[in-house]
Write a structure and sequence with these properties.
The structure is a single chain. By secondary structure, the protein is an all-alpha fold. The protein contains 11 helices and no strands.
Length: 243
């Protein structure tokens, strides 16, 4: 039996395949090489402008947070200090320059805040939350949230995030993660120390109060150096003032 017909057919099949591939490539949409396109994995959960998804109660707002804080959180997911598989996968290949580019984008966004759902808790529990946030608990060596996060709890440039406008579920989950050592910062880890001194009821109380608090008219983070942290925090290079 002659093999010549098959030999002749092979170049024709190859040409047809190449033609089909060329047509498919021509028909494929062109993906724009823009930052907006490249951060689509971020905005799918956190919103196009980093406004968060308050209705979910979990994905936090990124818009307007200090760029230093945002870049550090990306690095913490890379380094395993923060644990959340989708984030760890998304950021594992990012360069330091790209992390800062993403952080600068979200830090510059100015979008309205939306209130998230809050569990029904007693007035006494809300009062306890307010006390912890604004005065702390000296008996437990727990400083006020405002002592580090600013008088209006809107954060401090360049590294301390705002707490207002965050969902209850997110705040309570993060405090719980620090308490159980599934979220960490570089040593000394001041937030782990604080969370370890809070009871579960305290976490519920302060998370609920923060979620119910009205966002101030000026929600920008305070200027650098405007607060002196009461505990040593490795990421801030702060000197411990009290324990």
């Amino acid at each position: 039996m002659s093999l010549l017909p098959s030999v002749r057919l092979a170049p024709a099949l190859l040409a047809a395949a190449l033609f089909a591939a060329t047509v498919r490539a021509a028909d494929a949409p062109t993906v724009p090489d823009t930052l907006k396109q490249r951060i689509a994995a971020c905005t799918a959960c956190h919103g196009e402008q980093g406004q968060g998804t308050p209705e979910s109660g979990f994905f936090p707002r990124l818009a307007g947070k200090p760029a230093g804080y945002l870049a550090r959180q990306i690095k913490n997911f890379q380094d395993g200090l923060r644990k959340y598989a989708p984030m760890e996968y998304t950021v594992r290949g990012l360069s330091p320059e790209y992390m800062h580019e993403i952080a600068d984008y979200f830090a510059a966004q100015q979008v309205p805040y939306e209130r998230s759902p809050v569990p029904r808790i007693s007035a006494a529990m809300l009062e306890r939350g307010q006390t912890l946030a604004t005065h702390g608990d000296a008996a437990r060596k727990v400083p006020a949230c405002a002592a580090c996060h600013g008088a209006q709890l809107t954060g401090v440039q360049p590294d301390i995030p705002g707490l207002v406008g965050l969902p209850y579920d997110y705040v309570s989950a993060q405090l719980g993660s620090w308490r159980t050592h599934t979220r960490a910062m570089v040593a000394p880890d001041c937030m782990a120390a604080i969370a370890g001194r809070l009871s579960e009821a305290d976490i519920t109380a302060v998370s609920a109060w923060l979620a119910t608090r009205d966002v101030p008219a000026d929600a920008h983070a305070q200027p650098p150096g405007s607060v002196t942290p009461p505990l040593a925090c490795g990421v801030l290079g702060a000197t411990e003032a009290a324990r």
